[in-house]
Write the structure tokens for this entry.
Amino acid sequence: MPHLDDTALESSSVVANCAMNRERTLKNYVRELGIDVLAEAGDGRWLDLCCGTGRALTEAAAANPRLEITGVDLVDHFVPAPDSLRLVTASVAAWTQDAPADLITCVHGLHYVGDKLGVLARAASWLTEDGLLVANFDTRSVRLEDGSPAGRRLTAALREAGFTYDPRRHRISRRGNRKIDLPYSYIGANDQAGPNYTGQPAVDSHYHHTRPDHPLRLEPQPPAQV
Ligand SMILES: C[S@@+](CC[C@H](N)C(=O)[O-])C[C@H]1O[C@@H](n2cnc3c(N)ncnc32)[C@H](O)[C@@H]1O
């Protein structure tokens, strides 16, 4: 099982896959994220990680020219952008946001990123006090050294850190700025993991669990219906 570093991962054919959909519209974003993007961002700042061509962002910029929008993607196949929209060619593994954002999104981008938990933690620290982070995310793509899924310990750690995970929709979210320290240290990525729930080949991310003795706190289960 390969444990690729970011340089190897970012030149992998899975990440450079031209069959992936990079052209979602704003309407598609609303559906994929389950939020009203324009209402959440207001007249503030919206950062979209792994933005693809930036099509959804240009539509948002046209709908609200007061909104300050930044899109970041590894590949610079961007659509022409108006002044209020900044499209940056960079890896989200290296990107840092210089001003707090009211909305941070990542639509089907984390599937191709190495240190997914690192990106989620850093993005949470870039939010405004009541800003919203929402991303498509599959916890099954987070694996331990031996390849086993990080499982319930991961979902418990994410919940303790204030994230909400919807396993049915494969969506993670968090409201409000917070410095997050998840008990996982990143080892490397596996670009041979095969298709994930989207049907596209995706990347597994391997971690060392740094607090294996930490008690597993599970949500209380509702009483069984009889
Ligand atoms: C499935 S596409 C989604 C694009 C866009 N969010 C959309 O829905 O139209 C995934 C995008 O993630 C980008 N990507 C993958 N790894 C990345 C990384 N490390 N940093 C930035 N972008 C990355 C790819 O170049 C691709 O454009």
